[in-house]
Amino acid sequence: MVRLSVIILAYNHHLKVQRCYQSVLSTTDPAHTEVLIQDDASPEYNGELLWGPACQRNSPNLGFPGSCNQGVKRARGEVVLLLNQDTFATTRGWDVQLMALFDENQKCGIVGPTLLFPDGRVQSVGGLFDAACQPFHEALGYANPDWAPIATPRQMSWVTGAAFAVRRGLWNDLGGFDTEYGRGYFEDVDCCARAVLHGYEVWHEPRVRLFHEVGSTGGSPTFLKNALRFKKAWVDTGYVKPDTNVIKVRFWL
Q1: Kind plus residue range of the DSSP H or E element containing 224
Q2: Are 115 and 163 in contact (CB under 8 A)?
Q3: Which residue of 30, 110, 181, 252 pairs with 187 in a disulfide if CB–CB is 3.0 to 4.6 A?
Q4: Which residues of the chain carry a pLDDT beneath 50?
Q5: What is the dihedral angle through the alpha carbons of 172, 211, 130, 105, rounded to the nearest 10 degrees?
Q6: pLDDT at 214
Q7: Residue 226: closest CA among 243, 248, 251, 250
Q8: How far is the CA of 129 from the CAs of 97, 145, 165, 212, in angstroms?
Q9: How far is it, in rounded angstroms, from Cα 154 to Cα 128?
């Protein structure tokens, strides 16, 4: 019985998609984990010809939030893990560990693993809100992912969409990612905020570790627009509260 659906969001860079796909297949148990690819109308290839039934191709291009929403529609698992194409796994059994956290805590609605840069430095261990309620990655660039404060499962304010695990029932209740965020950025933080508003918790699971190269699909020219959209919806209304009294980033300041 499929319990976990891993959906790889693909756009060009077929070698990175293939590496991600093979790494997930080789480190998970096919008895309860399915691996799917969502090709967002890549101009360089047709994913359905490369990967067969595992892949579905969008037409037209939907952007990251829309492609995620489309991919989840065909998922069979009770939990869905959305993965960027430039992520990859190296250790077997992480799918079991991820599901264990959901099983142990029914209020846990969204989970993010530890993401590492290819050189082993910390990229993401979940996110918090700074003094201006701007989202930032805790411990970004730290050399030691085993540092005690970030090496045990804990609640966070948000987790990145690069590796975003969510209960499918919650996802359906929320309507997935908000496609008003267009090409992407802040749809993940927004989804976490909505999950918390619905009574669920967001967690970081450090015992699941994936690598992430970052940037194979490029940045977003609408980053500031999306930041201000999030600010208007969640910060200006007072729903989001700061986790620290320090300014960490400068998105709208």
Answers
A1: helix 223-230
A2: yes
A3: 181
A4: none
A5: 50
A6: 81
A7: 251
A8: 27, 21, 20, 22
A9: 12
Nearest of 99, 133, 164 to residue 251 by alpha carbon: 133
Residue type (1 letter), 246: V
Give the whole-angstrom CA distance, residue 76 versus residue 141. Answer: 35
3-state per-residue secondary structure call for 89-112: CCCCCHHHHHHHHHHHCCCEEEEE
The pLDDT tens digits of the residues spanning 210-224 come to 999 986 555 567 899
Q: What is the mean pLDDT of the chain?
A: 96
- C-alpha span between 110 and 201 (Å, rounded): 7
Diameter of the chain measured on Cα atoms:
51
**Among 12, 88, 14, CA closest to 50:** 14
User: What pLDDT shows up at residue 215?
Assistant: 65
* C-alpha dist (Å) from residue 159 to 30, 34, 55, 123, 136: 26, 22, 26, 12, 10
Among 189, 11, 22, 210, CA closest to 117: 210
| 113: its two tokens | 């693993």
Q: Where are the domains of the chain?
A: 4-235
Q: Is 113 helix (H, G, I), strand (E, B) or coil?
A: strand
